[in-house]
Amino acid sequence: MSNRDIEAPRKEKLKVRHVATMPVEGGVAESIIYNKIPVFLIYDKAGFSIIDKIKTPIEILKPLTKERFPYRPYQIPKGYDLHTLKNFNPTLQQIVELIRQELDTFLVLDDKYKVLVIISIIETYVQHKIDITSYLFFKGDVESGKTRALELFLLLAFRPLFSSSLPYADVYEYIGYHEEGTGTILEDDAHQLSKKTSLEKLKIYRSGYRRGTNCPRILEPTSKDRMQRFYKIFCSKIFAGYYLPSDEGFRARCIPITMICGDPEKSAIKKEDRIRMDGIKFCLLAWRMKNYNKPLPEIDTKMTGRLKEIWESKLQIAKGLEQNELMIDLASEYKRNKLEERRDSLNGHIVKTVFDLNKEFRGKEIPFSSIWSTLLSKLCTIHWTEATTKIASEVLGYDISKRMIGLKLATVLDGKKHLRRKAGRTWTFRDEYLERLIKKYGFTVNDVNDVNDVN
Questions:
Q1: Core-most of 56, 185, 334, 339, by most CB within 10 Å?
Q2: Same domain, 262 and 128
Q3: E strands within 242-345?
C-alpha cells in the first residue's frame, strides 16, 4: 500500500462564534463599533487595544456585528482614539452625576429611588463580581413613567435586551450557555407573568438571581439526536408593569418602585439625548473595563437571609459614594416595610397566635379550637361561631378555613398534630423553632405582644 492510499486526517475548521463580552488574560474584551467596523476593545495591563478576533483551541471568537446588537452599540466618543483613550478615566462619582442629570430630565421620581435606579444601572456593569442580585420592578398606571424608566435602562445599562412580553425562547437565546452575566434583560408589561402563560420565563426569573444557576433545555426534542443544553440564567433583570405578578417566587426577588404620573422636564427622548447618553454608556463601559478585576468593598449590611440577598450588592456599589447614606436609609425602610408585611400576613398572625398560646399552655398540647377562635377574633369582624369552618377575613382580604390553618401549622410552624377524644385535635410545637419564627416575622421574643417592637 502506498502512502497515497492513506488519506491524511483532515484538519477540522474551527467554528466561529460572535460574543458581546468575555474575560481575557489580565482583563476583559468588549464588542464595540470602531470607525464603523466591529472590533474587540481590550483592556489589560498594557492599556486599551483593539483586535478583530480571539482564537482559542476550539473556536474563533468574533465581535458582534452591527445587526447583532439589540441596543445602540458601544462606540469610542468623538475626540478620542486608542492613544488618547488611556487618559479617559472617569470616576464612579462623576458617572453617577451624569446619570443623575438624565433621570432628573426624564423621570418624576423621589430622590431616594433615583439613587436606587443609578446604583442598579451601575450594578449591570459589575455582574461578574456579584453572586446574588435583585430585580427592580417599576409599577404604575398608564403614562406613569414606568416604560420611560426601562427606556433609560436600555440607553445606559450593560448590553440590554428590551421588549414587551418577551418570548421565553428569545430570553434563552440572549442569555446563552457559555458565560454568566453577559447582558441585561428588560421586560415591559411584566404584570402578565403567570404560571399559566409564562411558566418557562418564570423558571428563569425565579432562579436567575443567583450565580451558578443553570436552566436545562432539550434542543430538537422531536429529533433522534436530542441534545441537552444548560443555559446560564444569572444576569441583571429589570421589569415594568401595572402591578407585581402574583407568583411569590418572583415577587420575593423584586424591589417595587411605584411610578406616579407627573411632568418631567422632557417628555420625549430625542436623537441628541441618545447621542449624549451614548457617551455616558461608554464611560460606564470604560469604568467596567478598568476596574474589571477589582473586587467590590466588603460591608456589613446588618441584614440576613433574603433581605441581605436583595440589598448587599447594591450597598457594596454605593459604598464610598456621596449617595451611600441615602441607599442605607432606603434599604432600612425596605426592611421595615417587609417586616410589617410579614407581621400582617396570615403566617405572621398564626405565628404570633401560636407563640402566645404556647406560653399560656406552657408548652403542652394546644387545642386547635383555641388557635382557630383566637385567629378569628383578630382577622374577622363578621359574626362567627365555634362551628364555623370557613369565613371571609376583612383584614386579609380573602377567605380562611380550618383546613388552610391546619396546613400552615404543619408546614410553616412544623407543628405535630394529635387527636384526643375529649379535646379533639391538639397541636404541639418546639419552643426554639417558635422563637426563630417570631424573629423572622418581625416580633421580639421579650415582648411578643408589642406589635411595634421590631428587630
A1: 185
A2: yes
A3: 254-258
Query: In terms of pTM, does the model score above 0.85?
Result: yes
296 and 408 together in one domain: no
Tens digits of per-residue pLDDT, 234-262? Answer: 999 999 999 999 898 899 999 999 998 88
In a domain, 423, yes or no: yes
Tens of pLDDT along 124-181?
A: 999 999 999 999 999 999 989 999 999 999 999 999 999 888 888 888 889 888 899 9
Same domain, residue pair 259 and 136: yes
Distances (CA, A) of 208 to 159, 166, 168, 330: 17, 16, 13, 24
Among 298, 333, 368, the domain-final residue is 333
Question: CA of 185: how far to CAs of 90, 103, 168, 239, 443, in Å?
Answer: 26, 20, 11, 8, 37
d(CA 408, CA 38): 58
The enclosing domain of 353 has a CATH number of 1.10.10
- Do 144 and 253 lie in one domain? The reply is yes
Which of 435, 441, 455, 252 shows the shortest CA–CA distance to 343?
441
Query: What is the span of the domain harbouring residue 393?
Result: 345-440
Q: Count the domains in the chain.
A: 3
DSSP 127-157: GGG-SB--EEEEE-STTSSHHHHHHHHHHHS
Contact, 138 vs 239, CB < 8 A?
yes
One-letter amino acid of 64? L
Residues 20, 164 share a domain: no
Q: How far apart are CA 397 and CA 140, in angstroms?
A: 21
Do 422 and 392 have their domain in common? yes
5 with 49: CB under 8 angstroms? no
Calculate the dihedral angle through the C-alpha atoms of 364, 370, 376, 378, rounding to the nearest 10 degrees. -50
In a shared domain, residues 325 and 424: no
- Which amino acid appears at position 403 of this protein? R
Cα gap 48→32, rounded to integer Å:
13
Q: Which of 183, 309, 305 is nearest to 234 (CA)?
A: 183
Please give the DSSP secondary-structure letter assigned to residue 404. Answer: H
Residue 447 lies in a domain: no
Amino acid present at 346: L
Q: Report the distance separating Cα 166 and Cα 9, nearest Å.
A: 46
Asked whether residue 185 falls in the same domain as residue 240, the answer is yes
